[in-house]
Design a protein that fits this description.
Helices cover about 75% and strands about 0% of the residues. It is an all-alpha fold and about 130 residues long. The protein has one domain. Helix 3 (about 25-60) crosses helix 4 and helix 3 (about 25-60) runs antiparallel to helix 5 (about 95-125). The chain is elongated.
Length: about 130
């Protein structure tokens, strides 16, 4: 400790434990960190939702066994994140892979765009 203090004195700077704690307790710094964390959480939720949707599309396109536990779990998660997009387009009834690709793909893009916009809005308003 003394060695560190001597080096700080040599550089003409002073290190004290109170200087870092007062910055950490500054309401503006705490608020900025909280807003940044909230915006990051929103972005991560959107990213996770998009990844789940894309994995489901890949499993369907790759003709994964629908009775497999992983495929079933991903289908249920994807159905949850698909919101109203799950059955948006029913036209390609003869090709269920294309229908899943279009509907769940649109949902994935929706999650990425909306989470990005909401995160920017959170940062801008705060």
């Amino acid at each position: 400790m003394a060695e560190h203090r001597d080096r700080a004195d040599d550089l003409g700077t002073e290190t004290s434990p109170t200087s870092t704690t007062s910055v950490a307790r500054d309401p503006a710094v705490v608020r900025a960190k909280a807003v940044g964390l909230l915006a990051d959480i929103v972005r991560w939720i959107g990213l996770v939702a998009a990844v789940v949707l894309v994995v489901h599309v890949v499993l369907v396109a790759g003709e994964a066994n629908p009775l497999n536990g992983i495929a079933t779990f991903m289908r249920h998660l994807a159905d949850f994140f698909a919101l109203g997009f799950k059955d948006l387009f029913n036209k390609p009834a003869d090709d269920p892979k294309l229908r899943v690709l279009v509907n769940y793909g649109i949902a994935a893009v929706f999650w990425l765009v909306v989470s990005s916009l909401v995160a920017k809005l959170i940062r801008r308003l705060a």
